[in-house]
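Deliverable D2.4 — example input (structure tokens):
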């Protein structure tokens, strides 16, 4: 049986009009997006871009469009011939959990909206910044963060691929880390245009709120396994997911380790579902010998004949 990974993007991949072609052509996609309120639908399809960048809209918008495209895929392509694991980057983990069957769309949308609110509040309470360090060894980035921590919280939070790590923390410490990385031979070290120090320990207030929020929901027995950001482990146990989602808010995203773990388990085909091609690019950096496909627009469904 062929082994297939379905991947779902996180915040930053959104664009105005995403998913509109699926909405117009496929009832399964229309049903998902019609479940969103009119304000969110309008922002997804018509913008303005500034509104879509706002975490309040960006997170549920990406979640909804990713789920809509997955439903189209599921209804038009026989997935029963594959062993499937789902994977998502940060916010994308929620799309991955929906696709795997851990919760329904209604609950998923509520959880994602709540998460965006909690992260927004924590970012106001503990303001900070993030930066991407390109072309520097993992150990060197960790050392740079340790040195910069003299100025305040500074932590590596997205281990995306070899040579691409994102750091997060208080503004002055992250800026110091960027200086140190540049002086230490990083190919690039750049501040990111984000509204808070995501995935750092400064997000602990959001994690606490998330814990309370998740207690409201009963998770289902899934159809597929998921690989989780906080520990890069494959699981189908719905009793473990809530704790992992709480941990994810204020812990690093172990994307590099997740993809490596999947490859070591024999998974050789990766399909990114949703806006953007960020995750496909990261997988290529990890192992360019694997089959890597994207479904972002309706015409992309034609690639499935290669599976």
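Example output (designed residues):
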């Amino acid at each position: 049986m062929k082994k297939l990974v379905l991947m779902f993007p996180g915040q930053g991949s959104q664009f105005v009009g995403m998913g509109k072609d699926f909405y117009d052509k496929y009832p399964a996609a229309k049903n998902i997006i019609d479940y969103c309120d009119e304000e969110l639908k309008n922002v997804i399809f018509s913008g303005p871009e500034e509104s879509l960048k706002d975490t309040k809209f960006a997170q549920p918008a990406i979640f909804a469009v990713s789920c809509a495209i997955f439903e189209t895929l599921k209804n038009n392509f026989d997935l029963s011939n594959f062993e499937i694991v789902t994977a998502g980057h940060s916010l994308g983990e929620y799309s991955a959990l929906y696709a795997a069957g851990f919760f329904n769309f209604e609950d998923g949308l509520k959880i994602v909206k709540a998460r965006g609110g909690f992260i927004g509040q924590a970012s106001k309470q503990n303001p900070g910044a993030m930066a991407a360090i390109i072309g520097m060894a993992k150990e060197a980035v960790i050392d740079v963060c340790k040195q910069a921590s003299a100025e305040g919280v500074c932590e590596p939070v997205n281990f995306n691929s070899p040579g691409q790590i994102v750091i997060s923390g208080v503004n002055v410490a992250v800026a110091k880390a960027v200086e140190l990385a540049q002086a230490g031979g990083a190919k690039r070290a750049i501040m990111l245009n984000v509204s808070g120090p995501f995935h750092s320990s400064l997000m602990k207030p959001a994690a606490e709120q998330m814990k309370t929020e998740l207690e409201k929901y009963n998770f289902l027995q899934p159809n597929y396994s998921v690989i989780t950001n906080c520990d890069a482990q494959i699981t189908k146990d719905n009793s473990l997911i809530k704790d992992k989602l709480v941990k994810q808010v204020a812990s690093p995203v172990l994307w590099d380790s997740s993809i490596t773990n999947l490859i070591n388990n024999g998974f050789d085909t990766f399909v990114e579902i949703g806006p953007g091609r960020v995750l496909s690019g990261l997988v290529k950096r990890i192992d360019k010998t694997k089959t890597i496909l994207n479904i972002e627009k309706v015409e992309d469904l034609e690639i499935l004949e290669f599976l």
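The first strand starts at residue 2 and ends at 8.
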